[in-house]
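Lecture notes, structural biology module. Today: joint structure prediction for complexes of four components.
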Amino acid sequence: MPHTTTMATMLELTDVDTYYGASHILQGLSLKVGAGEAVALLGRNGAGKTTTMRSVLGLTPPKRGSILMDGTEIARAKTHRIARQGVAFVASGRRVFGGLTVAQNLELAARTLGKRAAADGRTLEDVLTVFPKLRELADRRAGFLSGGEQQMLKLARALLGNPRLLLLDEPTEGLSPAVVSDLGRWLDRLREQGLSILLTEQNALFALAHVDRGYVMLKGRITHEASAEELRSSEEVRAALGVG
Amino acid sequence: MNTFVTETVSILTNAAMLFVVAAGLTLVFGALRLINMAHGSLFMVGALTVASLASGLTGGWGFAVALIAAVGLCAALGAGIEISILRRLHDREPLAQLLATFALVLVAADLAQRVWGTSDRTVATPVAGRFSVGGAVVPEYDLIVIGIAAAVALGLWLLLARTATGWRVRAAVEDPETLSVGGTNLALLRTSVFALGAGLAGLAGAAIAPLESVGPGLDTQIIVAAFIVTVVGGLGSVVGAALGAVVIATVEGLGTLWVPSYASSAGYLVMILVLAVRPWGLFGTPDR
Amino acid sequence: MTVLEEKIPPATARPAPRPAARLLPLLAGAAALALLAAAPYLVTVSAILSLEQVAAFAVFAVAANLLIGQAGLVSFGQGVFFGLGAYTVTLGWEHAGLSFWEGFALAPVLGAAAAALIGLVALRARTLYFALITLAFSQLFYQLVEQNTGFTGGANGVFAPVVPAWMESPVEGYLTLLGIAVAALLALWWLYRSDFGLLLRASRENRARVQALGTNVYRLHLLAFTVSGAFCSLAGAMFVVYNQGSNAELFDWTTSGQAVLMSVIGGMYTFAGPVVGAFVYQFGHDWLVRYVSDWQLVLGGVLLLVVILRPDGLAGALRRPGRLRLSGRLELPSRLRGRK
Amino acid sequence: MARFNAQRWTGLAAALLMCGSAAACANAAAGTGGSGGAGGGSGSGGTVTIGESTTLSGAIASLGQTGLQGVQLAAADINAKGGLLGKQIKVVSADDAATPATGVSNVRTMLDADHAVAIFGPVASSVASAEEQITNAQQIPIFLHTSNDIGLTTTTYSKYVFQDVPNTVMEPRAAADYLATQLHGKSVTIATFAPNYSFGQDTVAGFIQALKAENVHYTLVKQEFPPLGATDISSYLAAIESAQPDYVFNAQFGGDLVAFTKQAESYGLFAKTKVIAMYDYSVLQSLGSAAPTGAIGFDRAPYWTDDNSTMSAFVDEFRAKYGDAPSEWAILGYAAVQQWAWGVEHAKSFSGDAVSAALSGASPATILGSPQIRACDHQTELPEYVGTVSAQAASSSDPTHLWDTPAFEAQFDQIDYSCAQMTALQK
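The predicted structure, tokenised, for the full assembly:
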């Protein structure tokens, strides 16, 4: 297991303040994701986990603070520029383009960002090898897929952009136990391939089983930071997260 | 038979014209969630451009050149409007955007009067002939108008169904945020779609110019008709715009035959009836 | 009213205003009223004429804004009721021999009845579809009035000495309209401040929530549409005093659009906004039309600036900062509406 | 707090801009438009003000714009000859956007703020009838030189109203008379086509009535009423075309008539059918070489049919000033100002009562000769002109097709109601 102290930093948030209108959501938030590291962002509903991701993506730009992506400041960049820096996002919920077919969803992703790294990056073929099910569903309208299939499609779409950092927002939400364990396997495989990952989860036990390190958030601030094992065993954290 | 053919061709021509105007409006609504009141102004600019070029460029090719110039000018104007004004209002409620485009209608009316004056102009019909089918007269230019509409319909279908840009436009209707997260430059996409819509308005104006007196007032004449068609078909749906155009043209055409004095109200009645039954139009989607 | 008490954070819900803070708007209102009543003796005749129109349009805009700004229902069809009010007076005089005041009293009743019927259909549509179905009603009425020449006078309208002679002079006409406008605006003010008004604002912010808490939003909106129709119709009847008659264009969507413009220019999230809007728009319009050949260019340009620079309208600028924050939760979130 | 203040300032700036721009432009307009109006517009100094509120924007702006040119030129000519009762005439004008309420607002301002002593007419009849209410109440003469609804001199008539154009009864009657002279008792099929509002309906009804009065043997095969300003009229045209009438009487004017002609041409309607419509100078000029040769046109004051020297001098002057021949709207506007000026000189007063009394029953000299102003309804006894659109362009440099000469001149007493009929309509 690599240690944060020695490895290069992929993503670094420093003293980030983000507002929704007048509400102060992120209050001086700082966190780091190392290159090739998987990090979990834990906390209850409303703690600001999704806002953290939206801040990184430029969807809800921070008012103050710095966000470095592989050394480049992205706190004030446009969302599509951030995506082109190699940040991919798998949102929670049914965020596929329901009116397009599965094939069109995938091709759109491949043609938008895939070209950038086409030489050595993942091709549509590679992704379909990982998710063979999607090949069968190619001509189906994405809106008609099941929750698990949609999750698969969202993940495949994100990977087609050849990201260096993958943001996953509540990936297990609404999935059946079988699909959740599939998801775990895919995550482990992506870690092995050296992808940096930041994921938010309500299901702390799932998250901590597939990451190196974790942060606990409360009311827009980080309250704890530790390795996955420590967090798993900490009574205090378990209580804070409401985990049995 | 005679009446039937004449009536059918005229309904088709009317529908074709309405479709070309409405297609741009509905496309813009789909991708930008914006009702562009200035669509009629761009339509007028298209017609006026052809009218001022037409005297220098004669014949069928001359007209084609003027038509392309009109489309180009309107698309450029559209891009300018989107970048300088509408982009700033994108995150605001739809009413703000609606009023901004309404303000543009006022501005455009006076500017057009400044540039082109108040007198009515005419454009020589590039194809003045006519032929007869089953004893009924069909103007050749009607076929050109129908042809232009068919080309626009085919072009839009190819764009939306077959190209990545088209998929982006459709995806932008559903979930612009996810699209930008995937690396699409939304601002550029919006500008392009608005310019395309404006170009289509210009095309419609240019196509109608040989059949009309071209002068002030064309803008407001067309915009309400375009709204009816777009809303009946469902905002944002190109297929809906086509169907809406046919429905409205048919109702007006048959109304002309059967109840002439109420034909002009028929369009509004149809719109009210459609929305009473399907509050989001025939092919629209309920607002999220 | 549990809905709203939940919505407004307790800290900002109803802070007991300092006595001075409560008195100030009252004093300002009284001063403005005194100024308006004295206006005929202070300003030129042409300004009085504009003021006469403002009196009718202020009622029209505030009534329309009950839907636009308060309930979030952007109607482009309030001209239907404005026109109906005007025609009730003139056609009542012409066909039924009603006096001006009889027609005037009948106008809001007919307006309410028509609004209830139209609302039943129109309110099935939402957001922009609602805007456009109301626009269709506006145009439909316009066409019908213009075509039924025998009954309505067609495009020529009904211009006849229906207004009592003593009201024909600008000063008397204006003072009468001012009195009626103040009474109507007080009634509307009471509605805004009532639970009904609060519920309307709540339904604008979160329709599903209000519905879930047991209010039938469709019925709520139908009631608002009816009330708005009644007051718009009253405003139309007032307009006859200025216009000395009625004409088909009063039904047109451009008339409906005027109410929307006034609300937005003045500020649609406040009660006074549309009144300010009516002032600024009418005076601006009258001056521009009379003295500027490119008046549409200037009007459009200014409108564009207001829309871009002043999302809350001019009334936002005239409001004291404290008040803005006080009602922040309830009145500002439209800005946040874009967020997911 | 700082942010709020910023918003506050932009808001106030916008408000100030609105008022400021209006005021600035107003001052500018007053400064430039008041040509020598140093004495103020009140009529007490060296100037006297007349007002022209008409349609200067939108679809019928061309009628209003040229009408205004006629009025301004007439005032300038009178001023050049020393003015009226020693005063220079100042013309204030405003756009009514074809909306009665705006027309009312304009006229009330012209009367109350500018102290205008006479009002000259709008394009739309609805605006005219609204303005009559105001001028009647304030006892100011109004000269209607464009809108011509018969109702303006009947139901809303007062002694302050002057109708300076052939009215809606006269115009179709003249066309019917001309048709009768062409037919020599032959029976024909006729269709009508008119915008769907009072002007169109009245004109068509008047035409049919006139055909009956002239004992024309006709069969009415089709009547169409498209909406005013309809963009696409092909289905209405198709209906007309399929009825194959010998004649189509069309009550459209201006841009609508131009569009009708273009679309009718594409159906080949002119090959089998003669169209009778207001093919006046403006419409023929817009159509240029696309003019429908052989169609029957009517015009209220075609400059080319009048060969008296006063008219030709006026045409030359108008061309020199505006670079174009005068439309009927310009000619009638000019003549209306001449009438008013004549009335002022004979009454030796600007008062509405005096001018009205002087003009009633008088025959002032204008560029249109000296037609009488009928005492019972203040209708100027103008003829209406009807002609056949020529196959020849006016000249090698001007592609406009005018009419074959000589044109048919329908005399006033042949085409208008009698005074007894008018008085009955006035109630």
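Point to remember: Chain C has 18 helices and two strands.
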